[in-house]
Write a structure and sequence with these properties.
Blueprint (H helix, E strand, L loop, with lengths): L2 H5 L3 H15 L23 E4 L2 E4 L6 H7 L4 E4 L5 E3 L11 E4 L2 E5 L10 E4 L3
Parallel strand pairs: 1-7
Antiparallel strand pairs: 1-2, 3-4, 5-6, 5-7
Length: 126
């Protein structure tokens, strides 16, 4: 960059540049600020809490029920008629190995449903 060009800037030009930079980092009127202010800690979303077969179950916000179950140390949460253990298999909703009952509604795929506060989840066997 040409240093002579920089020195040719007027104080007004420099002020306008700072105002433009500041406006670009500030939320528009009516928008929420997405970044915490300098020195503030970011607000963490509340961790959802539910129960699985009567035991507390928590996970990071946005995590699926299957992720919460795996995160809690469970590798399987139902059995087939033949007694084989089943849990998370495909993780994309194609198979039905991870089915659970959520708030009394059976046949729900745990890998497709985010954990929500207050859910009552039971294994398909229960």
């Amino acid at each position: 960059m040409n240093r002579d060009h920089e020195s040719a800037r007027t104080p007004q030009d420099q002020t306008e540049q700072v105002e433009l930079q500041t406006a670009a980092t500030q939320p528009a009127q009516g928008e929420q600020q997405t970044q915490p202010a300098h020195g503030e800690q970011p607000k963490q979303p509340m961790q959802p809490a539910a129960t699985f077969n009567g035991a507390p179950l928590t996970a990071a916000p946005g995590a699926t029920i299957a992720a919460a179950l795996i995160g809690s140390g469970r590798q399987s949460w139902r059995t087939t008629r033949g007694g084989a253990a089943r849990g998370l298999f495909c993780g994309i909703g194609v198979c039905f190995d991870c089915i659970v009952t959520i708030d009394g509604e059976s046949g729900q795929r745990a890998c497709m449903i985010p954990l929500a506060n207050g859910m009552t989840i039971t294994s398909a066997d229960a």
